[in-house]
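Q: What does the assembly look like in three dimensions?
Context provided by user:
Components: two
Sequences:
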Amino acid sequence: MINIKPEDIEKRSFEIISEELKEKGIILDPINELVIKRVIHTSADFDYATNLVFSNKATLIGIEALKKGCDIVTDTKMAQAGINKRVLASLGGEVHCFMSDEDVAVEAKKRGVTRATISIEKAAKLNKPFILAIGNAPTALIELKKLIDEKKINPILIIGVPVGFVNVVEAKELIMETDVPYIVARGRKGGSNVAAAIVNAMLYQITR
Amino acid sequence: MINIKPEDIEKRSFEIISEELKEKGIILDPINELVIKRVIHTSADFDYATNLVFSNKATLIGIEALKKGCDIVTDTKMAQAGINKRVLASLGGEVHCFMSDEDVAVEAKKRGVTRATISIEKAAKLNKPFILAIGNAPTALIELKKLIDEKKINPILIIGVPVGFVNVVEAKELIMETDVPYIVARGRKGGSNVAAAIVNAMLYQITR
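A: Here is the predicted structure of the complete assembly.
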């Protein structure tokens, strides 16, 4: 056990991550480096060094939008809990999660689709710029692709990192076919913790 | 993309996990099987098939306590968000997270320790049986070991799954030296999502 002050633990963790990436011969794009390292920090999983895929300047686009006070829409209460809402609020943004809304539940049941699908429809009606951070539901990404094709939704950035075994891999590939800026965890891995870490990594590049 | 009803996605996911475990030649202890599979389900990471360590009958002890309405104390708002509180409440339990409490912050700052350390001290004063679910802070486990040795805290079960690079591996090994029942993710991996998945896996064995 090493003796370390609480405030130094994160710094030391990032140093270890940097050292081990170097040992593995992995060189990260400097633009995306802090996002990738924070995801590894939150998961202890170096797979994210290679499976995170960024569209051109996605991280910079996200940071610029957050600076201007954009909102975040996410598909889980866990991601909502994990995003640093104090920092986000200091920039003028807030986090929305529509998944537990009564109207969403009713509509989903009526149409036999997931609440995530209906949540994306609801996000499309927001009258403020927003980043989508999807950590759980591939159906959210499938609906999103449909609405993008129909020009009915216009997110600034899609953080597409659902985790799972059914339609998850394919749903993420769909998002990478769009013209909307994206950060996607290719393959099965991801999760609410990963979605929150990506948002926080962008926030901290503004405020730290 | 396969066409599947929302309510069948989880079932199909667990079937895929079972098939792939079989292909890998991994046979799970039936007592812990549903806990391990749910953690894989939440992370898409088969490492948990081998790194989750259970003390004797830990899962059964957790399930019995939850049946009797025990509470959960966790170290993150994310785990608190991820635990199925509706099901827990139906059994008479609730989730506590003391990390953002004003008194915890003040005391941690005063003593130069983490809020997680103080949160464990606060948990020790609960006058109701509880399970500890630690998904983030190794310092929580270190404090816990100390209080167990001093016979000042008596959790029914420790879910010790913090994630990280500094003192995390060692803190988890400490917990495995105690006589308290535990479920630990050996090594660096873990997280709030893993902690919540373990609790939910026990809850669902009671109510589904």
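Follow-up: The CA atoms of residues 163 and 190 of chain A lie 4 Å apart.
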